[in-house]
Amino acid sequence: CHFLQQPSVFVADKGTMHVNPAGRIVGEVGSPAQRMLSQLAKGSRVGIVTMLGSMCPITRAHVQMMVEARSLLLDKKMDGEYAECIGLLSLNADSYVHAKLQTGSPGKGCSYISERQELVELSIADIPWLSLSANCEREALEGLPRLFPNLQFEHFRVNGEDDVIRFQKWRHAGPTKRFITIGRKNSGQQSLEEFQTEHFLIGAPVGQISSTQVREACRAQNRAALEAMVHPRVAAWLLAREGGA
Asked: CB of 31 within 8 A of CB of 2?
């Protein structure tokens, strides 16, 4: 099981999913990530990479962004060495996703958070360091440090380059707000290398996969195209949801 599997949540006005006061910030004892952290020596430096998104549905690109961010921190050439790095994913609220889909994206989609949670779990089931969280930033900044007070956690927010450029996020980077930007291969976007600092890191680019393309392939019942864009377990779920075999 992953952190906060089947969490109790409420939806805030700004569209971010938060832990219900009756819920838990951190997850089940014995989860894969917790086992990894419990084996580390006292004082170990641990990176936490987090990403908030709609993931409607989660694609291979979403997962690869987290893989690249983690690899960047675990690279021996970094200033200092991270003993481990774990990743946390959180989902935008239904209200935000439904507003995005009002234009009529093809296919039935998977816009409800319960469905998107299930697909994230299916996609990351084989990745022990990556977990689903009801609120990844709160868990990174409060929950995990409280659970493992003898470890030194450093939190990085993972963003795609489009979002970073649009909001000039390098201007907000600092010791208490760290970013890792992951670009898209052959995107044609401006280079962000000049803004790179110890608090604003640039990771290797990943291939572009549009969630709209996934929904189109689902509508067309194109299993081969789907499995090139999403995990096979996710593809099977989407095809069954759409009414195919």
From this structure: yes
The pLDDT assigned to 189 comes to: 60
109-124 exposure pattern, b = at least 16 Cβ within 10 A, e = fewer: bbbebebbbbbbbbbb
Pick from 55, 76, 171, 172: nearest CA to 124: 55
Q: Which residues of the chain have pLDDT under 70?
A: 1-30, 76-80, 103-109, 186-190, 244-245
| 8 Å CB contact between 55 and 89 | yes
Q: What does DSSP say about strands 17-19 and 9-11: parallel, antiparallel, or unpaired?
A: antiparallel
Amino acid code (one letter) for 83: A
Question: In this structure, is the dihedral angle defined by the CA atoms of residues 31, 36, 37 and 39, taken in order, positive or negative?
Answer: positive
* Residues in contact with 7: Cβ distance below 8 Å, sequence separation at least 6, in sequence order: 19, 20, 23, 24, 134
CB distance 88 to 3 below 8 Å: yes
- Nearest 10 degrees: Cα torsion 57, 59, 63, 64: -160
Closest alpha carbon to 207 in 2, 62, 18, 3: 62
Torsion of CA 160, 166, 167, 171, to 10 degrees: 80
State the alpha helices, DSSP H only, in the chain.
32-38, 60-74, 94-100, 113-124, 136-138, 144-147, 161-167, 211-219, 223-229, 232-242
- Closest Cα to residue 53, out of 177, 115, 136? 136
- β-pair partners for 18: 10
3-state class of 195 per DSSP? helix
Q: Give the pLDDT score at 77.
A: 57
> For residue 160, what are its two tokens?
């795609």
